[in-house]
Amino acid sequence: MSDTVKLIFLGGQAEIGRNMFVLEHQDDLIVVDCGVGFPSIEHFGIDLVLPNFDYLKEHASKVRGIFITHGHEDHIGALVYLLQEVKAPLYATRFTCGLIAEKLKEADLTKEVELIEFDVDGDDVLDGGVFKLEPFRVTHSIPDCVGFGITTPAGLIVHTGDFKLDPTPPDGHLTNLDKVRSFAERGVLLLISDTTHIESEDWVPSEKTVGAAFERIFDGANGRIFVATFSSHVARMQEAVDAALARDRKVAFVGRGMQTVSRVARELGLLTIDDEQMFEARDAIHYQDDKICFIVTGSQGELGSALNRMALGEHRDVRIEPGDTVVVSAHPIPGNEVAVFTMINELFRLGADVAYSAREVVHVSGHGSRSEIREMVRVAKPRFLLPFHGEERMLVIFEEMAITEGYDPSAITISRVGDVIEITPDAVQIVDSIPCDPVFVDGSIVGSIDDVVLRDRQTLSGDGMVTIAATVDRDSGTLIAGPEVMSRGFVYAQNSPELIEQVRERATTILREFAGNSAQDLPGVGRQIRNNVSSYLQKQTGLRPMVLPVILETAE
Fold first, then answer.
1. 126's torsion region: left (phi>0), alpha (psi -120 to 50) or beta?
2. pTM
3. Residue 108 is part of which domain span?
């Protein structure tokens, strides 16, 4: 049908992160956001998780533009990977453009990408071919965030982006509900709504409550102060800066992400601090402890982050010492709880006074609660609803909330990554699905990582490895040297001599049989050793270490 539009989420459904969807109508296609996901516990050694770009590569000639809601990594982090495959204009607000420009420069893509800035508070109508996008400001935890009203052949779609309805944000910029009301007057066919914080009913406290907590904590601190927060949270950075400067403390931004974002934010007038009010972390020794404040990365306990390295005594410039005050201004992202609280425990052990969300209101969510989401639904008055940006339970809670608002279940679409959603003036329904397996970044390798590789990594992390090395004669198969048995992450060989000796004897028996049987091939012998030893070790220890036979051939 000529008025039918396809909507496909390439990431960000029934998961947190990897936000990206496409809208398609005949020869026109637009992309909204292009973010990374972060590996879960089963993704051993994986650095990042990307959306699957196969569908976009197949339809690259149709792509009229890539439209970005805001500058968080789960919305822009995969852009440099996509833009190497698909060329299209890229649209974003001023601050988001600043962050993207840094990424393009680092990837040497600046000259290849048309980066177009639009006004977060203007009346711009962005051209996506048959799709027309009208941005509207939303309050979140990073500057210059937008949602989109998208005029399509099927009708008007409103995409909230990540939002909350903070009535008193520090920068004074409210979510533009008046624009949403204007969409409602025109008739909203479909609302695509953020659901990240829907499990909480009460309105999220204002960001200003965090600033007030900083004031109290800074008043009680006599030594150095460290504030760890997300490097993208410019409002939170400004609150820490203001509290520090009001107490005659200079500020150092520590960590690559924190330094980059603070520089971009200062250049754009979004972060206010003068050069003379800052210092370099390496110069901290030249200042009294009660005259300095560090704003650092590491609120999620990430390995290699500034605060984590300071806590471990591995930072080249600064270490945590007794008398320091540390503010961990973030809730742990699901999956990061162990890393965060391990770091906090270490900070306490080092003698620091640590303020975190269980002790002080040092963080509020950047996503609206169920009450705020309900209010957005009431203002937009859509005919159909589609929750996004949430795990499975959050999508279902959204559905339950919508039903209490009078929506029929048939008007609510719960989708997953790869579902093909057909939108017409009279219906929104899932009609098909496309292959959409996640793409992994593993060091310098980008692509699908075989399940066998991940299982091997899981085995190594859990039960370790046993290596059996031997040398045999190329012609006769006679055992020349070994077998030597080495254990890593399984048992300490010197504490288990009988077990190691049994492994050696089993391998020796199989290798000697090989010498007398010319029909056997060397790979087959390796498999025999692996299977025999694996079975034995599991029976003896209950563990299944990876068994790796290494058999070399040489001439006597």
1. beta
2. 0.82
3. 5-202+365-447
